[in-house]
Each structure stands twice: as structure tokens, then as C-alpha cells.
Amino acid sequence: xxxxxxxxxxxxxxxxxxxxxxxxxxxxxxxxxxxxxxxxxxxxxxxxxxxxxxxxxxxxxxxxxxxxxxxxxxxxxxxxxxxxxxxxxxxxxxxxxxxxxxxxxxxxxxxxxxxxxxxxxxxxxxxxxxxxxxxxxxxxxxxxxxxxxxxxxxxxxxxxxxxxxxxxxxxxxxxxxxxxxxxxxx
Length: 186
Known about the structure:
The chain is mainly beta. The protein contains one helix and nine strands; from the N terminus they run αβββββββββ. It has one domain (41-185): Immunoglobulin-like.
């Protein structure tokens, strides 16, 4: 009986030692980005004044798009250019324009709307419309009007984003869009 009790702990110890010697492999995923931007532009939520984060257009219902061209309420946002900190505003520059392009292409008439991400169950029949501070549409691939800028103080350029239908039927689902922008100082 004593022999069998000694054998059990010895066998268990050997089994654990054998498992500790096993090698496991895996993968580490490193991500990052190297950018050449020397003049950071902040995306600002004008309600909170906070930079960064997504612009939340909000939730709406399919019945709010009864015809082609119907729009949701939307959300105002700003781009802020701050001289200094790497931003060089050429002497004599008094204005800037902003060019927008959709990561997922244009949709709707003339591809003027910004396409949605191809998420599972994505909403259909709509795109994102971006308008300047006077309500003029800035089409996908287009350039805004000129906004005044300062050589010494932060300058903000206000825009408005809405969902806009481009078909007679809009289906429910996630509606997210990624839009690149370039600020052109003139």
C-alpha cells in the first residue's frame, strides 16, 4: 500500500514536469503608422469642443427616407488648424479649402455621396453627405469653399454630415463611413 501511494505522487510530479517542458508558440501582431504630416488637423465636436473620436451622426429610421434625396438630421463637426506645433502657414495665406474622399468610394447620383463601410448587414440605399457651413454639398472627391484662416490663432472650418438616400428604398443596418480629408492652405 505504501508503495502505491509513493508511486502516485512521483507519477504526477513527472507528468507535470513533462508538461512544463513543452514549448508553445504564438504570434504577436504589431500595428502602427508612420506619417509625414507636419501640421496636425484636429477633428472637433463643436458641442463639447473635444478633439478626436468619431462624429456620431446619430440613429434614425428607414421611414425618414421616403424619397430619393431624403436626409437625416445629421451632425455638425469642425476641422481645427492651429499654427505652430509643426504647422507652417505660408506668409500671406488667408484661406484654406478641404478636399474629402471616401475610403469606400462614392455612391448615389454622380457618386457624390460617401460610401458606407461594407459591414455585416450594412444599411443600403444611403450614403453620407458632407456640407459646408452654408449647406452646400461637398461631393466625394470634391473640394470645399474657402474658409478664412489666421496666421497666429487657431482657425476652425465647420461642416455638417447627414445620411442621404440615393434609392427609393432604404434598409436598416449599421451605417458607418470613413472619409479622408486634406486641408489645402492657399
